[in-house]
Design goal:
Blueprint (H helix, E strand, L loop, with lengths): L5 H4 L5 H14 L5 E2 L11 H12 L12 H15 L8 E4 L2 H12 L5 E6 L4 H8 L3 E6 L10 H7 L4 E7 L11 H12 L5 E5 L15 H4 L7 E6 L12 E4 L2 H12 L7 H12 L3 H22 L14 E2 L4 H6 L6 H12 L1 E2 L1 E2 L9 E4 L4 H15 L2
Parallel strand pairs: 1-10, 3-4, 3-5, 5-6, 6-7
Antiparallel strand pairs: 2-8, 7-8, 9-12, 11-12
The protein binds pyridoxal-5'-phosphate.
């Protein structure tokens, strides 16, 4: 028998990826399943981005590149940070990786030691705690429920910080809740962090562009520029340009940390795919109107989904500020159903008995909720919510 490492035994497979795989399996077996589990836009990658990749292949741009990304893409990332976020970085402060997930992974590996603590507000993106565990450190979860808009308070943050805290993660707008912190809320969290110089701040801006609050996007560094020397900004092209399969993420931050992350990448995966880098550069430098088209569709679907969900007895859904997720509290539904004790069982029954795939809130550290992605057609959303309503009424 193979003896596995304690490291790998400390984590679980990504629940969102496994729900998506499960839905695909059932569908392949002939079952009628509507998938609202996947965390990716349903749009095709815009044409000009695909063309750039095709050109890269034709031009023979198919070899290793610099580990940290091509000079062209890094310049595009630098220009993007300046244009969209008012942030200035030198090339040695930028690392391009194979997806936002690898950016975070490299960061955790470069920063955390056993015994260190990483503060993660819940509901959280499923991979943060497990990547912290893979680094041997301890995830410290701050719960923020529906009643507080799924956002932590400065007092909660203050109470969670200890001398062992090395990392604080903030993701706004958030996967899974769609909640975005206002500039004032960010500034208040920033004030707490300024009192604790041992803490590095990671802001995951992956959903930056998928936002409809009316206010401009703001991250913690915009609200609290004094944190510049100990903040890393994580972003990528996956969600904004519908490029999840291309696997390009990027980070901007302190040169020492970025250099350490690059070293890890140089000994693990080397550069991200050269062709994908060409495509990502075209995405960042090209016409940005494709982003607005997708956001408009997401907002329309959001309005429909939230209204429909709130009309189902037992469901309470807060409107999202952005992203393509709704994260209703479904405790009322669970209470009313025989043989369904929690959100895990509800999600299981929904997929097997009702033909709708959603991700249980427990996966995001928020039992009693469920995540549904509205990155799918209105038709499918309408049908899926109908199935959910009928199942809930049983
Ligand atoms: N951060 C958040 C909050 C996400 O939801 C995701 C994807 O689901 C990522 C990062 C990573 O994106 P990718 O690795 O596909 O670029």
């Amino acid at each position: 028998d193979v003896q596995l490492s304690t490291r790998v035994q400390s984590i679980k497979p990504s629940p969102t990826l496994s729900i998506t795989a499960r839905a695909a399996e059932l569908r392949a077996a002939g079952k009628d399943i509507i998938g609202l589990g996947a965390g990716e836009p349903d749009f095709d990658t815009p044409e000009h981005i695909k063309e750039a990749a095709i050109k890269a292949i034709r031009d023979g741009f198919t070899k290793y590149t610099a580990v940290d990304g091509t000079a062209g893409l890094k310049q595009a990332v630098i220009a993007k940070f300046e244009r969209d976020n008012g942030l200035n970085y030198a090339p040695n402060q930028i690392l391009v990786s194979s997806g936002g997930k690898q950016s975070f992974y490299n960061m955790a590996q470069a920063l955390l030691n056993p015994g260190d603590q990483a503060i993660i507000p819940a509901p959280y993106w499923v991979s943060y705690p497990d990547m912290v565990l893979l680094a041997g450190a301890e995830p410290v979860i701050i719960p923020a429920g529906l009643e507080q808009g799924f956002k932590i308070t400065p007092a909660q943050l203050e109470a969670a910080i200890t001398p062992a805290t090395r990392l604080f993660v903030i993701n706004s707008p958030s996967n899974p809740t769609g909640a975005a912190y206002s500039r004032g809320e960010m500034a208040a969290l920033g004030e707490v962090l300024l009192r604790h110089p041992q803490v590095l701040v990671a802001t995951d801006d992956m959903y930056e562009h998928i936002l409809w609050t009316g206010a401009p996007f703001v991250n913690i560094l915009n609200a609290c520029p004094e944190l510049y020397d100990r903040t890393i900004v994580l972003n990528g092209v996956s969600k904004a340009y519908s490029m999840t399969g291309w696997r390009i993420g990027y980070a901007g931050g302190p040169a020492k940390l970025i250099g350490a992350m690059k070293k890890i990448q140089s000994q693990s995966t080397s550069n991200p795919a050269s062709i994908s880098q060409a495509a990502a550069q075209a995405a960042l430098e090209g016409d940005q109107s494709c982003v607005g088209v997708m956001v408009k569709a997401f907002k329309e679907r959001h309005d429909f989904v939230v209204e429909t969900l709130n009309a189902i007895p037992g469901v309470r859904c807060r409107p999202s500020d952005g992203t393509f997720y709704a994260f209703p509290n479904v405790e009322g539904v669970i209470e009313g159903l025989d043989g369904v004790e929690d959100d895990l069982e509800l999600a299981e029954r929904l997929i097997t008995d009702a033909g709708v795939a959603m991700v249980p809130g427990t996966a995001f550290g928020a039992p009693g909720c469920i995540r549904l992605s509205f990155a799918t057609s209105m038709e499918k959303l309408d049908a899926a919510l109908g199935r959910f309503r009928d199942f809930a009424a049983r």
